[in-house]
Amino acid sequence: MQSQDHLLEQLKEHRIISILRGIPKDRAQNVADALQRGGIVFAEVTMNTVGALDIISQWRESHGSNMLIGAGTVLDVEMAKEAVAAGAQYLVSPNVDEAVIRYARDRGIGVFPGAMTPTEIVAAWKAGATAVKLFPMASLGIGYLKEIRAPLDQIPLVVTGGVRIDNIQEFLAAGSAGVGLGGSIANGELIREGRYDQIELNAATMVQAVKSYNASRP
Hints:
Blueprint: H1 4-14, E1 16-20, H2 28-37, E2 42-46, H3 52-63, E3 68-72, H4 77-86, E4 90-92, H5 98-106, E5 110-112, E6 114-115, H6 118-127, E7 132-134, H7 137-140, H8 142-149, E8 157-160, H9 168-173, E9 178-181, H10 188-192, H11 196-216
Helix pairs in contact: 2-3, 2-11
């Protein structure tokens, strides 16, 4: 089992969490294959996806040796229990639910609760979050991240929303420990059309941008 500290170190190395929401169950395996070929390590299936638990279980079995599989949109402890039972190695939420954080922490499961304000961010961190998901980043903007990081630079933040190939390095430079990426890698249209080669290319392009950024750091 991944410890929370080890999971955080891996996140800081690989930086990207690929978010899959509403993925058809019969296409999930092909998407996972494409993500792995593109170099993605962290992949998250949201719990409001039909068949999410089956997909998580399937991905752990087929890709567990190369990827870290998580559950997203985990809103309460019951959902957390179901996700962990299916094999989720970390939990991601759009909100701060201290009961979910405690459940994950007590079991050594990574947990990334979603927060927006300084009060929410600090509360999530004090409750035992592995890192805090700053959300919704598309609306808040990179300026908000920079302002938040000034007083809260000791808390690792994963920004989600609005991150693209043309700005991913800017978000990393502004202090995010990682980024959550949905449509920038695997959007609904690509999945419906079975364009797995494009999903692989999108993933590889993002992964290369992260590697270039990491290599440029002193």
